[in-house]
Amino acid sequence: MSERREILQHLCDDLEARLARYRAHQRRSLDKDSREQAGEVQNDEVVEALDQEAREELAQARHALARLEAGEGEVCERCGETIDPRRLAALPYTTRCLHCADT
Ligand SMILES: [Zn+2]
Fold this sequence. Notes:
Elements: H1 2-31, H2 38-69, H3 85-90, H4 98-101
Organism: Halomonas salifodinae
InterPro entries: DksA-like_N (IPR048487), Znf_DskA_TraR (IPR000962), Znf_DskA_TraR_CS (IPR020458)
Keywords: Metal-binding, Zinc, Zinc-finger
């Protein structure tokens, strides 16, 4: 499953690049005087939400990568069953089987 490792590594790099862009946007916003402009504030909120989402995704991708490197990448962290390879292919960052993902 070294292919999945590459996918996860790439995902981490990608998310880190995205987070760097969001941080740059947030710094620019702080410098602005015209923050009361509705469009600008709304945009900031969107970026803030995306930033939060990317942070969580990155944490999950790193977590999955760590489990993969520990030799547990294909095992559900909750019930210990093998995760369906099709699920891993579709969601490389998942660490739970289909059954446990919903609970
Ligand atoms: Zn499970």
